[in-house]
Amino acid sequence: MELKGFKDYFKILGISRNATDKEIKSAFRKLARQFHPDLHPYDDEAESEFKEINEAYEILSDVDKKKSYEEYLSYWSKNSYEKSRDFAREKNDKHFD
Q: Please, are residues 45 and 86 in contact by the beta-carbon 8 Å criterion?
């Protein structure tokens, strides 16, 4: 189940959820070079990727923002699991009416 508007910043940077600050920075730099607008001047998709990479790095490189994001991520994961269980339960209950 995917939440509309939710962005997995760890996935965007291609790193694990327990990545170190050094790994976060390294992944950011690698991807920023790959999708930099100067290297792809007329590529809207590359520009969009570059913006997402910057957004992810902005959150994950700041201790307070990263902590808030991880709390949100934990809350989202828990609630999406509960909602999917409830949906499955409702779907199965209809077959027994």
A: no
